[in-house]
Design a protein that fits this description.
The complex is a heterotrimer. Chain A is 78% helix and 0% strand. Chain A is mainly α. Chain A has a domain at 24-167: MetI-like (MetI-like fold), CATH 1.10.3720. By secondary structure, chain B is an alpha/beta fold. Chain B has helices spanning 45-52, 77-83, 99-109, 115-128, 144-157, 174-189, 201-207, 225-230, 235-248; strands spanning 5-16, 19-30, 34-38, 60-65, 68-69, 84-87, 162-166, 194-197, 210-215, 218-223. In chain B, the strands form two sheets. In chain B, strands 6-7-8-3-9-10 form a six-stranded mixed beta sheet, with helices on both faces. Chain B has a four-stranded antiparallel beta sheet with strand order 2-1-4-5, with helices on one face. In chain B, helix 6 links the parallel strand 7 and strand 8 (194-197). Chain C is an all-alpha fold. Chain C has one domain (2-226): MetI-like (MetI-like fold, Orthogonal Bundle), CATH 1.10.3720. In chain C, 78% of the residues lie in helices and 0% in strands. Classes of the chains: A mainly alpha, B alpha/beta, C mainly alpha. The interface between A and C is large, with 50 and 49 residues.
């Protein structure tokens, strides 16, 4: 049995990487929410070109690997004269990617709201966009929390991909420490445990959020 | 006389949480006999049936099938169950198998018959319940009455020593009850040994050799249909029979 | 032009993605079924081990798993190829997701089916084999398709440990012809769109072939898994 090694000095370095991981995940999720909502509305209520564009976007980003998307942004865009830093490339690729997935969750939630809600909203004189804003979305956004939680956890895990374009996130730092000490097993077990802990914390926070905004009757029929 | 006893149930107790559903039930079933168990809902009739072949293990009490103690820990319960047919209230046909395969499964996997022989027997049993032409239909393509008849064929195919019927017509639309009762009546007349939990008083009266009236987890009274319907010994029996006859009608 | 000359190479490299896909999804299936069965029917020990397995492989990023299985095992003295390491790491990850799918399907089958199976004398194991699994696997096809589309894309992550799959080959081209980077990656993207499409067609055919009346209603397709 080979000797296992652990050094305390690894932890502060990993913590630094962790900060970056958190930043990247939070930023790309935020981009994804805004863009995802626009895409979802485009796919549910949009007409012609807008519907078509939104659908093509979702198809493309869900049908191709995130790694390929990242390499497109980081190595591909410069060939078109647009050069972005590794950090920005990472956030952009991940944000564009998660937007497509979030759009599908939003769309599913919007479409699960009964048609009567829109009719009732219009019957009291709300415009279509008012009805969406004041009646449909407040319900849909509550329904979307459970699938959306999965997406957040996915993005946390997938954010590790940015190390491939030299960003020193948790994964990037872990790789450097492991390679320098040739301690891949120990370092990556620790890294795995850190990710697992983050997943636990996020799931717990989101369950808390779900309970906070819960309304009786909504979502019961699902 | 004792040699004719095929099923013996002794002092069955069963409790769900705080509620004691069965509080000591005993009876004997003779070869070729049809016993009908009646009583208000929630009296533990269905639980009693399930305790017999241990689909629900009883807390206390013993059961013998043809001299073998079912409740003995060393008894191979699967072998016993194969010899006790069971017909469920909601049919429970295997959803992914057509009628023929539903009937054939036990013959192939338990009795290990070859496919030809198994098919032959299964088709014979489907014929017996009048559904040979539906052999290839899936449960979802059959009416409730047809599904229940297939499930009776499934039980018959195993050549059981006794068949337990758990309210076989309760989940059926009224117009479909007749076809199932008809099959059951034929079986009883052909000498099959049966225990039937049912609210069908017409069937009980004309087919049962003995009726057991249960209430509150115990047997209140048992006797011939003639005696229970015309001259019950217990006041409760008379009350229940009057009420149920008003509710369901005398004959089916 | 160079993009076109690179095409055969890209397609050839993509065969490794396909091989990895079949390896990992097969491993995930073979491991995922018992994990699901332990969770539903196992005793506390087996159920607990199965749940821990699922929790670990669902919560750890693929890349961390790849590094653990390839570099980590090398450090511990186990010599396995990058391809095998990728199959194990991604396969075990998939087993965790597949077990969740199968568990859901098993639990969706009415209790009466098991009871009816017992009533004709089938043992627990026989009932699982002849009654529960044939039904559960049919119910599982739509969510399983999502996992399938998701892992096709995840095969590219094997790039990280040096498997010569398609993105690595694309990188190899673009390192020498950096002006073509976007075009080459777009071609790679199109190849994946094609794979995803073909995969869905294949699974649709499978679902149709195994169709049994009474199952259509339940076979609602869940929203997509990630990749």
């Amino acid at each position: 049995m080979p000797q296992l090694v652990f050094k305390w000095e690894w932890l502060p370095k990993l913590a630094q990487g962790l900060t970056l991981t958190a930043e990247i995940t939070a930023t790309c999720i935020a981009i994804g929410i805004v863009l995802g909502l626009i895409l979802a509305l485009g796919r549910v209520y949009g007409r012609h070109i807008f519907y078509w564009l939104a659908s093509a976007y979702v198809q493309f980003f869900r049908g191709t690997p995130l790694l390929v998307q990242l390499l497109m942004v980081y190595y591909g865009l410069p060939s078109w004269g647009i050069s972005l830093s590794p950090f920005i490339s990472g956030i952009l690729a991940m944000g564009l990617n998660t937007a497509a997935y979030q759009a599908e969750y939003f769309r599913g939630a919007i479409q699960s709201i009964k048609a009567g809600q829109m009719l009732a909203a219009r019957s009291i004189g709300l415009s279509r966009s008012q009805a969406i804003r004041y009646v449909i979305l407040p319900q849909a956004l509550r329904l979307v929390i459970p699938p959306w939680s999965n997406e957040l956890i996915y993005m946390l895990k997938y954010s590790s991909i940015v190390y491939m374009v030299t960003v020193m996130d948790l994964m990037g730092v872990a790789r450097v420490i492991a390679a320098r000490n040739f301690r891949f097993f120990e370092v990556f077990i620790i890294t795995a445990l850190i990710y697992l802990a983050l997943v636990l914390i996020i799931s717990w926070l989101l369950r808390l959020l779900e309970r906070r905004v819960k309304i009786p009757g909504l979502g019961a029929e699902r | 006389m004792a040699s004719n006893v095929i099923l013996k149930v002794e002092d069955i107790h069963k409790r769900y949480g705080r509620e004691e559903v069965l509080r000591g039930v005993s009876f004997s079933l003779f070869k070729g006999e049809t016993k009908v168990i009646i009583g208000p809902s929630g009296t533990g009739k269905s639980t009693l049936l399930r305790c017999i072949n241990r689909l629900t293990p009883p807390d206390r009490g013993r059961v013998w099938l043809d001299g073998v103690e079912v409740s003995h820990p060393k008894t191979n319960i699967n072998k016993i169950r194969a010899a006790i047919g069971f017909v469920f209230q909601d049919f429970n046909l295997f959803t992914h198998l057509n009628a023929l395969d539903n009937v054939r499964l036990g013959l192939l996997k338990i009795k290990r018959l070859d496919k030809k022989k198994a098919t032959e027997i299964a088709m014979m049993e489907l014929e017996r319940v009048g559904l040979a032409e539906k052999a290839k239909a899936y449960p979802a393509e059959l009416s409730g009455g047809q599904q229940q008849r297939v499930s009776i064929a499934r039980a018959l195919a195993m050549d059981p020593k006794v068949i337990l019927f758990d309210e076989p017509t309760s989940a059926l639309d009224p117009e479909l009850i007749g076809e199932v009762l008809e099959v059951m009546t034929d079986l009883a007349r052909a000498g099959m040994t049966m225990v039937v939990v049912s609210h069908e008083m017409g069937f009980a009266r004309s087919v049962a050799d003995e009726i057991i009236f249960m209430e509150g987890g115990v047997i209140v009274e048992q006797g011939s249909p003639e005696q229970l319907f015309t001259n019950p010994r217990q006041k409760r029996t008379g009350e229940f029979l009057r009420k149920i006859t008003e509710l369901y009608g005398e004959a089916s | 032009m160079i993009v076109f000359r690179g095409l055969p190479g890209l397609f050839q490299a993509s065969l490794l993605n396909i091989a990895l896909l079949f390896g990992l999804i097969g491993l995930g299936f073979v491991v995922g079924i018992p994990i699901a069965l332990f969770q539903v029917y196992g005793n506390r020990l087996l159920g607990g081990v199965a749940s821990a397995w699922e929790w670990f492989f669902r919560g750890v990023p693929e890349l961390v798993l790849l590094f653990l299985f390839f570099f980590g095992s090398a450090q511990l003295g186990l010599k396995i190829s990058a391809f095998v390491a990728a199959t194990l790491a991604l396969g075990f990850r998939s087993s965790a997701y597949q077990s969740q799918i199968f568990r859901g399907a098993i639990q969706a089958i009415p209790k009466g089916q098991m009871m009816a199976a017992h009533s004709i004398g089938l043992s627990r194991w026989q009932a699982i084999r002849y009654i529960i699994l044939p039904q559960a696997l049919r119910l599982a096809i739509p969510p399983w398709s999502n996992e399938f589309s998701s892992v096709i894309k995840d095969t590219t992550l094997a790039y990280a440990i040096g498997v010569n799959e398609i993105t690595r080959y694309a990188r190899f081209i673009t390192e020498r012809h950096y002006r073509l980077a976007m075009a080459v990656y777009l071609v790679v993207a199109l190849i994946f769109l094609l794979f995803t499409y073909l995969g869905n067609r294949l699974l649709g055919t499978l679902e149709h072939a195994l169709r049994v009346p009474g199952f259509e209603a339940k076979a609602a397709r869940a929203a997509g898994e990630h990749g």
